[in-house]
């Protein structure tokens, strides 16, 4: 989608520190990390909210989670990690292209 920063990263128009890519998703380092390791798993299909998921997108999100599960140790997250999906204004979602934050590399504060 035009004017979407993550679509531009997917298209290679904006550089990113990529750690994984396949036909339907990309995983790269967050530019403003909130933990020692902070990755973003982004589907190549542009949609903003989980409410926009049809069956196909639900299967895609499931494959994103399975990819994170399969690769987390390679990404330095063998000791544990946290997934965050911000949805809408109250959650502070700033990029309106669905993404899963993958946080770790340290003990993560909860409160
Ligand atoms: P949100 O607040 O929407 O859940 O998260 C958006 C995330 O995208 C933020 O953590 C922000 O640092 C990250 N981000 C925004 N623009 C860029 C960019 O151009 N490159 C990278 N690698 N991350 C970005
Ligand atoms: Zn997009």
According to DSSP, the number of beta strands is: 5
Q: Please give the domain count.
A: 1
Question: At the fourth CATH level, what is the homologous superfamily?
Answer: HIT-like
Continuous helix count: 2
Task: Name the helicity range.
Answer: 10-25%
User: Could you say what the CATH topology is called?
Assistant: HIT family, subunit A
The level-1 CATH class: Alpha Beta
Provide the spatial order of strands within the biggest beta sheet: 1-2-3-5-4
- Tell me the series of helices and strands, N- to C-terminal: HEEEHEE
Bound molecules: guanosine-5'-monophosphate, zinc ion
**What is the CATH architecture term?**
2-Layer Sandwich
Largest sheet features? 5 strands, antiparallel
Flag low-confidence runs: none
| Share of β-strand residues | 15-25%
**What is the residue-mean pLDDT, rounded to a whole number?**
98
What does this structure look like?
This protein has 2 helices and 5 strands; from the N terminus they run H-E-E-E-H-E-E. The protein is an alpha+beta fold. It has one domain (5-94): HIT family, subunit A. A 5-stranded antiparallel sheet has the order 1-2-3-5-4, with helices on one face. A hairpin with a 7-residue loop joins strand 2 and strand 3 (37-43). The longest helix is centred in the middle third of the chain and has 17 residues, at 55-71. The protein binds guanosine-5'-monophosphate (5GP) and zinc ion.
């Amino acid at each position: 989608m035009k004017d979407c920063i993550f679509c531009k990263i997917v298209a290679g128009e904006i550089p990113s520190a990529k750690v994984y890519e396949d036909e339907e998703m990309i995983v790269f380092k967050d530019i403003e990390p909130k933990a020692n390791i902070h990755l973003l798993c982004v589907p190549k299909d542009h949609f903003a909210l989980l409410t926009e998921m049809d069956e196909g997108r639900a299967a895609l999100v499931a494959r994103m989670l399975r990819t994170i599960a399969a690769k987390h140790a390679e990404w330095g997250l063998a000791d544990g990690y946290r997934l965050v999906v911000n949805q809408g204004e109250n959650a502070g979602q700033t990029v309106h292209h669905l993404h899963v934050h993958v946080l770790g590399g340290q003990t993560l504060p909860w409160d």
